[in-house]
Amino acid sequence: RRVLFRSPKDFRTEKGRVGDVYFTPLGATATTALDHLFLTLAGVARGAPATIEVKRRAVFIPQAMGRVVRFSFNDICAQPLSASDYLALTQHYDSWLVDNIPVVAADQRNEARRLIMLIDVLYEAQVLLAISAAAEPEALYKARDGAEAHDFARAASRLTEMRTRGWVENTAAGAKLMASTYNP
Prior knowledge:
α3 (about 85-90) packs parallel to α4 and α4 (about 110-125) packs across α5 (about 145-160). β3 (about 55-65) and β4 (about 70) form a beta hairpin. With about 180 residues, this protein is of the alpha/beta class. It contains 7 helices and 6 strands, in the order βαβββααβαβααα. The chain is globular and about 45 Å long. The longest helix is centred in the middle third of the chain and has 16 residues, at about 110-125.
């Protein structure tokens, strides 16, 4: 049984949004912004495919360069991955770019759970996360009730915090990003 504590104000939303690591709506502008961000963080326009082994399984990474990785939503949330996979990836990569996060339908519970787990793991590991998404964080999951809906509300709040200047500056890659001439 879950006990919910509700605060009248979500203080994670009060820290000043940067707006340069969360791009919505999906489209050419968002893709170009993530391309530019990858170049800024990795020093190359495109990473190379890679794999890491987690519990005797290979986890495929579409693009990696140094400590920067780039996935599509389908690569990271529509595949049978777990929190331990995400955690293992954070030990190798501290800058994550995730393209094309759709509005997840209520019946896409597996994808919703993976997106929630991904956000939770990246948040706890204080990883720099940049994404392109179909909507603002609170509108990315259509379910209104159930465990996933409750957990997604927390994840949306975390996503909102992860795009603030304070969050970005306190990540390992944030200092490099803030010192660059990056301008989405």
